[in-house]
């Protein structure tokens, strides 16, 4: 689906091509999860589905929010909201590296014309009680993808092992479209730019995250979500309980951006969420669904 | 004799894991061969690329012969029952055993016949076990398999004497072929010997030997730099990292916009070398220029790789520049109070508390160094402000350095800026050591405050764990003191630091802190002297009267002694001391409580005693002469002047006289000899050389 007018893939065509590619590999193509999350990994299609013995293949775009990374739209590389394309396969296939390298060619990166490197990057999410080993994949010195074999999720050892491939869509398109500023990315064939779509929201959300978010009410919200999550685990409802964890996690991220959480308190909040996620993971495994 | 080689093909293994796996594997194999008494020649090695771990032995014995031997069984009086079970557990029949008398009585024996083992079958049997014995610092599982490896292991090629070694390892079966393309794992090729294997890859410009690869990259970098008449300073760590993340090195010359050279050079170095693992280039005057080398893993046929890498560096430097411009002019003084929002460490207050403590310690040191107290206090106050900046958040490895640059940009005095930059120095082995007194004052204050704080909380490094890098801090203190010949009174400083904590209502058990910290620093000091190649017995002996306040003097004395220890003067000194010391040691109880000043000249019977006594008196008098107080060479040669008198004494006087009083008097004279030597430093633990 390379655009005929231009010599590169638009942002949306990059997404279409990845969806089509992984669909052909047999993945369920999901839509983004409808809650604010920090990364594609938080989608229950990854966290919860990576637990237990049942095989699973899925791919989806996930809008990801990182309040602390906001720069009021003034930085060419930093955004508080961006897109990840996530592929999760359980058990990890033996030929996953080949599948991944082939997927790069559908987004316009011919692996034999570029210097593709697998650089050690072991991944850990204290909030999810998750850890994995893998790499960040470099293309001519730019990190374009995270490639991780999950070893642990929700504090539970994974068996079999899932592999997670997370593409940074903006980075990939900046590379293929040869743009130095993320806001100059071309979204579609009409020439709509990333700036047209996101400039205003980056500015406004940066202001909200850093300056205006009401820390008092956020702290209260955190407690409410936490209580709700605990109550739902008592009633053995894994998915609704997990949703509350995601909400609590996002509230925590905004509080963090507001500088309302000291380093000493940090680990306390994180471990509160992690403990509930662990409970959710256990519930998920009990359920034979 | 046959060639053996093994290739373990996997997805990309990180540099550190590669290095430790190489070391582990080669030692597992050599230990195994030695246990089995299999001979091999010296030409063996463990090699690696990110995807291939290779074990190679040029020449190994094909067969081992285990000689026949007699094995002792139970005593002949053993019950039939017990004998039966002995036979069955050893899988032998009764006709195979025989009786034999030995010292302890008569026993059953049996003879194990001479056996031949084929090395090939021993390897096939044992390789899986040798592989399992690799101690990965981090390992993982994948798919549905149970195997733990650094990264997914895909194939095993094992060749002995040109043919396959057959074995299973978890879900994998060994073979004589391997994947020749590391990414797609499709094409395979059969190999029979190491030479053709190496050559096959060499023809594709893949260097499988990491040592050769490292040399290749290094030589190329130096060569192209020389051609341009520039300079390059290759850091070994960077070169090692680069060597172990590729197998087909190719050097591409790139550049970045010159305007980035206006930023602190550390930002450029950190971005290009530390984060991107590229190499920077300097001009003839060793000034950074806007050229860098990328070592890519493939040739750059149409210039895309060069362009891509330049774009990445440009984006990263733009990012750094953005924060640099934003942060540098933010008023540092106004930010100090914000340090109260950052927790330094649980139980040790905030960073504001910390800088207030540093101010006190720094102030004390400024008095001692006779430098401006005001400047030192200001430097202490500003020292941690950079922690509030986005730039340090992005480049945590540059904290301190960036603070110094901010201070520079805001027009603070040079000494203040320099000392903020230098506060964390020395940062490791080979690191620069602060030289000027302002830097020393801040650096020492910071280290003392940290050490006292953590020891106060009883967070003390163990043999394997030192998460807060306290050892490095203690070594840093020692280095600063020794290299600057600055006899700082550490004990006083630790005491003072405890009081400063106490004034902030952070209470420690001061005595325990001092005791534990003293022995901690003592251990580091020993290690430091060892590194400086001071002989072990000199280290031991110099620490007999260890005082934390005397580090510098102890070190200088030990070092001077070390210099002469193998020369005639040194050998004589020790010999003379030891002769006296050994006699005293055996007769210790007789004069234990007696002061050596009680030597009674009236009891001397010979001139030898008188001469020695007089000589020792002269030496002791000279030792008190203020002129040689800090002249340790003269002190040593002064001690050596007693050589003749001591030799004469031992050759002509018998200490063990029939008259108890005379004997005691002579012992006291020997004690005087030792005590005189001990004025330099205690010689008690020195060992005589040959």
Overall description:
The complex is a heterodimer of chains A (289) and B (690). In chain A, strands 1, 2, 3, 4, 5, 6, 7, 8 and 9 form a 9-stranded mixed sheet that branches. In chain A, 42% of the residues lie in helices and 21% in strands. In chain A, helix 6 packs antiparallel against helix 7, helix 6 packs parallel to helix 8 and helix 7 packs antiparallel against helix 8. Chain B has 5 domains: 148 residues, 2-Layer Sandwich (Alpha-Beta Plaits), CATH 3.30.70; 46 residues, no CATH class; 119 residues, no CATH class; 199 residues, Hypothetical protein af1432, CATH 1.10.3210; 119 residues, Orthogonal Bundle (Isoleucyl-tRNA Synthetase, Domain 1), CATH 1.10.730. In chain B, 50% of the residues lie in helices and 13% in strands. In chain B, the strands form 6 sheets. Chain B has a 5-stranded antiparallel sheet, with helices on one face. A 3-stranded antiparallel sheet of chain B has the order 5-7-6, with no helix packed on it. A 3-stranded antiparallel sheet of chain B has the order 15-17-16, with helices on both faces. In chain B, helix 5 crosses helix 6 and helix 23 packs antiparallel against helix 25. Chain B is flat. The model of chain B has no long low-confidence stretch (mean pLDDT 91).
């Amino acid at each position: 689906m390379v655009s005929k007018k231009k010599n590169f893939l638009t942002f949306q065509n990059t997404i279409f091509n990845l969806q089509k590619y992984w669909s052909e590999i047999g993945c369920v193509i999901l839509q983004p999860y409808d809650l604010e999350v920090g990364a594609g990994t938080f989608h229950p299609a990854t966290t919860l589905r990576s637990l237990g013995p049942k095989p699973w293949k899925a791919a989806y775009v996930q809008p990801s929010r990182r309040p602390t990374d906001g720069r009021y739209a003034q930085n060419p590389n930093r955004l508080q909201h961006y897109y990840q394309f996530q592929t999760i396969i359980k058990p990890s296939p033996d030929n996953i590296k080949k599948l991944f390298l082939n997927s790069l060619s559908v987004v316009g990166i011919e692996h034999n014309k570029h210097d593709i490197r697998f650089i050690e990057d072991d991944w850990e999410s204290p909030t999810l009680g998750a850890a994995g080993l893998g790499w960040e994949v470099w293309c001519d010195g730019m990190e374009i993808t995270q490639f991780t074999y999950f070893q642990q999720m929700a504090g539970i050892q994974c068996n079999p092992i899932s592999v997670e491939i997370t593409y940074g869509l903006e980075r990939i398109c900046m590379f293929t479209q040869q743009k130095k500023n993320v806001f100059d990315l071309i979204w579609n064939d009409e020439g709509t730019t990333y700036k047209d779509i996101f400039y205003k929201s980056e500015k406004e959300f940066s202001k909200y995250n850093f300056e205006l978010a009401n820390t008092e009410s956020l702290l209260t919200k955190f407690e409410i979500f936490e209580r709700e999550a605990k109550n739902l685990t008592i009633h053995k409802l894994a998915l609704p309980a997990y949703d509350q964890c995601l909400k609590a996690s996002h509230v925590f991220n905004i509080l963090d951006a507001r500088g309302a959480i000291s380093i000493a308190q940090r680990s306390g909040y994180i471990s509160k969420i992690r403990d509930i996620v662990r409970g959710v993971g256990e519930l998920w495994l009990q359920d034979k669904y | 004799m046959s060639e053996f080689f093994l290739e373990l093909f996997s997805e990309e293994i990180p540099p550190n894991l590669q290095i430790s796996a190489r070391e582990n594997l080669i030692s597992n194999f050599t230990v195994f061969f030695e246990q089995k008494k299999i001979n091999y020649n010296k030409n063996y090695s463990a090699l690696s690329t990110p995807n291939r771990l290779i074990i190679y032995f040029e020449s190994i014995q094909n067969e081992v012969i285990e000689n026949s031997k007699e094995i002792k069984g139970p005593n002949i009086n053993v019950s039939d029952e017990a004998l039966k079970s002995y036979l069955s557990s050893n899988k032998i029949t009764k006709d195979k055993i025989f009786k034999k008398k030995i010292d302890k009585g008569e026993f059953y024996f049996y003879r194990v016949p001479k056996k031949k083992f084929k090395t090939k079958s021993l390897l096939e049997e044992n390789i899986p076990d040798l592989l399992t014995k690799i101690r990965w610092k981090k390992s993982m599982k994948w798919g549905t398999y149970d195997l733990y490896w650094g990264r997914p292991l895909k194939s095993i090629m094992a060749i002995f004497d040109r043919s396959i070694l057959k074995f299973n390892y978890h879900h994998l079966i060994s073979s004589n072929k391997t994947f020749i393309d590391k990414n797609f794992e499709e094409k395979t090729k059969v190999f029979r010997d190491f030479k053709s294997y190496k050559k096959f890859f060499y023809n594709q410009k893949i260097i499988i030997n990491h040592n050769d690869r490292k040399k290749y990259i290094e030589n190329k970098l130096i060569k192209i730099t020389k051609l341009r008449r520039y300079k390059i300073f290759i850091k070994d760590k960077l070169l090692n990292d680069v060597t172990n993340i590729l197998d087909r090195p190719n050097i591409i010359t790139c550049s970045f916009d010159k305007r980035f050279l206006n930023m602190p050079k550390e930002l450029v170095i950190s971005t290009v070398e530390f984060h991107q693992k590229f190499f920077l280039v300097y001009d003839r005057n060793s000034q950074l220029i806007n050229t860098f080398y990328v070592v890519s893993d493939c040739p750059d046929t149409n210039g895309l790789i060069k362009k891509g890498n330049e774009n990445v560096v440009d984006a990263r430097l733009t990012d750094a520049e953005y924060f640099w411009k934003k942060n540098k002019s933010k008023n540092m003084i106004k930010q100090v109070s914000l340090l109260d929002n950052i927790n330094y460490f649980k139980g040790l207050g905030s960073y504001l508390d910390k800088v207030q403590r540093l101010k006190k310690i720094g102030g004390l040191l400024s008095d001692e160094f006779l430098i401006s107290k005001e400047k030192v206090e200001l430097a202490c106050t500003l020292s941690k402000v950079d922690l509030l900046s986005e730039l340090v958040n992005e480049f945590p490895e540059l904290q301190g350095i960036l603070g110094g640059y901010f201070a520079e940009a805001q027009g603070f005095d040079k000494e203040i800026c320099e000392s903020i930059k230098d506060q964390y120095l020395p940062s490791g082995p080979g690191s620069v050591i602060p030289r000027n007194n302002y830097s020393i004052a801040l650096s020492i204050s910071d280290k003392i405050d940290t050490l006292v704080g953590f020891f106060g909380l009883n967070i003390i490094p163990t043999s394997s764990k030192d998460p807060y890098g306290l050892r490095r801090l203690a070594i840093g203190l020692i280095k600063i003191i020794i290299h600057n010949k600055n006899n700082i009174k550490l004990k006083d400083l630790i005491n003072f630091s405890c009081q400063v904590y106490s004034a902030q209502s952070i209470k420690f058990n001061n005595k325990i802190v001092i005791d534990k910290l003293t022995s901690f620093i003592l251990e580091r000091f020993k290690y430091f002297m060892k590194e400086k190649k001071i002989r072990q017995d000199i280290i031991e002996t110099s620490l007999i009267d260890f005082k934390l306040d005397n580090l510098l003097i102890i070190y200088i004395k030990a070092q001077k002694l070390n210099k002469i220890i193998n020369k005639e003067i040194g050998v004589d000194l020790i010999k003379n001391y030891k002769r006296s010391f050994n006699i005293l040691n055996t007769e210790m109880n007789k004069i234990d409580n007696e002061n050596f000043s009680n030597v009674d000249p009236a009891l001397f019977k010979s001139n030898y005693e008188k001469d020695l006594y007089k000589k020792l008196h002269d030496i002791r008098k000279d030792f008190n002469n203020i002129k040689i107080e800090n002249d340790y060479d003269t002190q040593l040669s002064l001690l050596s002047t007693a050589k003749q008198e001591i030799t004469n004494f031992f050759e002509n006087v018998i200490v063990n006289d029939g008259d108890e009083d005379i004997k005691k008097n002579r012992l006291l004279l020997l004690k005087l000899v030792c005590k005189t030597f001990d004025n330099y430093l205690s010689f008690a633990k020195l060992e005589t050389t040959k």
